Amino acid sequence: MAKEIERKFLVASDGWRQHADKGVRLRQAYVVTMEDRSVRVRIHGNKRARLTVKISKSALVRNEYEYDLPLEDARELLTQAIGIVIEKRRFRIPHKGFTWEVDVYEGALEGLTVAEVEMKRETDLPTLPAWLGREITGDRRYSNQALATEGLLEAQA
Length: 157
Fold this sequence. Notes:
By secondary structure, the protein is mainly β.
Protein backbone atom coordinates (compact mmCIF):
# COMPACT_ATOMS: atom_id res chain seq x y z
CA MET A 1 0.00 0.00 0.00
CA ALA A 2 1.15 3.49 -0.78
CA LYS A 3 -0.01 6.72 0.77
CA GLU A 4 -1.01 9.46 -1.63
CA ILE A 5 -0.30 12.87 -0.13
CA GLU A 6 -1.07 15.68 -2.54
CA ARG A 7 -2.12 19.28 -2.92
CA LYS A 8 -4.28 20.42 -5.83
CA PHE A 9 -4.73 23.80 -7.54
CA LEU A 10 -6.51 25.41 -10.44
CA VAL A 11 -4.13 26.61 -13.14
CA ALA A 12 -4.21 30.37 -13.78
CA SER A 13 -1.90 30.69 -16.82
CA ASP A 14 0.03 28.75 -19.46
CA GLY A 15 3.40 29.50 -17.85
CA TRP A 16 3.84 25.81 -17.05
CA ARG A 17 3.93 24.78 -20.72
CA GLN A 18 7.52 25.92 -21.36
CA HIS A 19 8.83 23.43 -18.77
CA ALA A 20 6.44 20.52 -19.41
CA ASP A 21 7.12 17.16 -20.97
CA LYS A 22 5.11 16.13 -24.06
CA GLY A 23 2.30 14.74 -21.89
CA VAL A 24 0.34 11.50 -21.98
CA ARG A 25 -3.30 10.95 -22.83
CA LEU A 26 -5.31 9.40 -20.01
CA ARG A 27 -8.76 7.86 -20.07
CA GLN A 28 -10.22 6.88 -16.75
CA ALA A 29 -13.48 5.75 -15.26
CA TYR A 30 -14.88 4.85 -11.87
CA VAL A 31 -16.42 1.42 -11.48
CA VAL A 32 -17.11 1.76 -7.74
CA THR A 33 -17.74 5.01 -5.90
CA MET A 34 -18.51 5.70 -2.26
CA GLU A 35 -18.13 8.84 -0.19
CA ASP A 36 -14.65 7.99 1.09
CA ARG A 37 -13.40 5.41 -1.44
CA SER A 38 -13.33 4.49 -5.09
CA VAL A 39 -12.15 1.95 -7.63
CA ARG A 40 -10.82 3.48 -10.83
CA VAL A 41 -9.55 2.09 -14.09
CA ARG A 42 -7.11 4.22 -16.09
CA ILE A 43 -5.58 3.72 -19.52
CA HIS A 44 -2.24 5.48 -20.05
CA GLY A 45 -1.63 6.48 -23.66
CA ASN A 46 -3.41 3.39 -24.99
CA LYS A 47 -0.30 1.40 -23.93
CA ARG A 48 -0.90 0.27 -20.36
CA ALA A 49 -3.67 0.18 -17.79
CA ARG A 50 -3.98 0.28 -14.01
CA LEU A 51 -6.73 -0.48 -11.53
CA THR A 52 -6.59 1.78 -8.46
CA VAL A 53 -8.37 1.56 -5.13
CA LYS A 54 -8.35 4.79 -3.09
CA ILE A 55 -9.54 5.17 0.48
CA SER A 56 -9.59 8.71 1.91
CA LYS A 57 -8.05 9.38 5.29
CA SER A 58 -8.22 13.19 5.13
CA ALA A 59 -8.42 15.98 2.55
CA LEU A 60 -4.67 15.61 2.00
CA VAL A 61 -4.01 11.86 2.46
CA ARG A 62 -5.42 8.71 0.86
CA ASN A 63 -4.42 5.08 0.99
CA GLU A 64 -3.81 3.93 -2.57
CA TYR A 65 -3.53 0.43 -4.00
CA GLU A 66 -2.57 0.09 -7.69
CA TYR A 67 -2.44 -2.95 -9.94
CA ASP A 68 -1.51 -3.50 -13.56
CA LEU A 69 -4.48 -4.53 -15.67
CA PRO A 70 -4.63 -6.10 -19.13
CA LEU A 71 -5.47 -3.38 -21.66
CA GLU A 72 -8.47 -5.27 -23.02
CA ASP A 73 -9.91 -5.67 -19.51
CA ALA A 74 -9.44 -1.95 -18.92
CA ARG A 75 -11.22 -1.06 -22.15
CA GLU A 76 -14.13 -3.28 -21.15
CA LEU A 77 -14.27 -1.72 -17.68
CA LEU A 78 -14.46 1.76 -19.25
CA THR A 79 -17.78 0.69 -20.77
CA GLN A 80 -19.04 -0.02 -17.23
CA ALA A 81 -18.27 3.50 -15.98
CA ILE A 82 -20.33 5.19 -13.32
CA GLY A 83 -20.82 8.61 -14.93
CA ILE A 84 -18.54 9.72 -17.74
CA VAL A 85 -15.16 8.48 -18.89
CA ILE A 86 -12.72 11.27 -18.08
CA GLU A 87 -10.37 12.20 -20.90
CA LYS A 88 -7.35 14.39 -20.22
CA ARG A 89 -3.74 14.96 -21.10
CA ARG A 90 -1.27 14.92 -18.20
CA PHE A 91 1.94 16.88 -18.28
CA ARG A 92 4.81 16.65 -15.78
CA ILE A 93 6.75 19.76 -14.76
CA PRO A 94 9.75 19.75 -12.41
CA HIS A 95 9.77 22.75 -10.06
CA LYS A 96 12.21 23.28 -7.19
CA GLY A 97 12.54 19.69 -6.01
CA PHE A 98 8.97 18.57 -6.71
CA THR A 99 7.25 17.24 -9.81
CA TRP A 100 3.95 18.92 -10.63
CA GLU A 101 1.34 17.22 -12.79
CA VAL A 102 -0.94 19.40 -14.88
CA ASP A 103 -4.13 17.78 -16.19
CA VAL A 104 -5.74 19.45 -19.20
CA TYR A 105 -9.23 18.01 -19.45
CA GLU A 106 -10.89 17.19 -22.76
CA GLY A 107 -14.36 16.11 -23.83
CA ALA A 108 -17.16 16.91 -21.38
CA LEU A 109 -14.72 18.68 -19.01
CA GLU A 110 -12.88 20.72 -21.65
CA GLY A 111 -11.70 24.04 -20.27
CA LEU A 112 -10.71 22.69 -16.86
CA THR A 113 -6.98 22.62 -16.07
CA VAL A 114 -5.77 21.41 -12.68
CA ALA A 115 -2.29 21.00 -11.17
CA GLU A 116 -1.29 18.70 -8.35
CA VAL A 117 1.88 17.93 -6.51
CA GLU A 118 2.53 14.71 -4.62
CA MET A 119 4.52 14.96 -1.42
CA LYS A 120 6.36 12.42 0.70
CA ARG A 121 5.08 13.90 3.99
CA GLU A 122 2.10 16.00 5.00
CA THR A 123 4.53 18.59 6.35
CA ASP A 124 6.31 19.10 2.98
CA LEU A 125 6.06 22.66 1.69
CA PRO A 126 6.61 22.74 -2.07
CA THR A 127 7.38 26.12 -3.59
CA LEU A 128 4.28 27.17 -5.52
CA PRO A 129 4.85 28.03 -9.19
CA ALA A 130 3.62 31.44 -10.39
CA TRP A 131 1.19 29.82 -12.86
CA LEU A 132 -1.00 28.34 -10.12
CA GLY A 133 -4.42 29.68 -9.25
CA ARG A 134 -6.64 28.97 -6.26
CA GLU A 135 -5.89 25.95 -4.08
CA ILE A 136 -8.60 23.30 -4.30
CA THR A 137 -7.11 20.60 -2.05
CA GLY A 138 -10.01 18.89 -0.32
CA ASP A 139 -12.68 20.53 -2.51
CA ARG A 140 -14.55 17.40 -3.55
CA ARG A 141 -16.09 19.18 -6.56
CA TYR A 142 -12.66 18.90 -8.20
CA SER A 143 -12.02 15.27 -7.36
CA ASN A 144 -11.94 13.14 -10.48
CA GLN A 145 -14.58 10.94 -8.88
CA ALA A 146 -17.01 13.88 -8.53
CA LEU A 147 -16.12 15.22 -11.99
CA ALA A 148 -16.92 11.80 -13.49
CA THR A 149 -20.17 11.26 -11.63
CA GLU A 150 -21.52 14.81 -11.18
CA GLY A 151 -19.77 17.02 -13.75
CA LEU A 152 -18.36 20.45 -12.95
CA LEU A 153 -21.22 21.57 -10.64
CA GLU A 154 -20.24 25.22 -10.87
CA ALA A 155 -16.86 24.21 -9.49
CA GLN A 156 -15.03 26.85 -11.48
CA ALA A 157 -17.06 29.69 -9.97
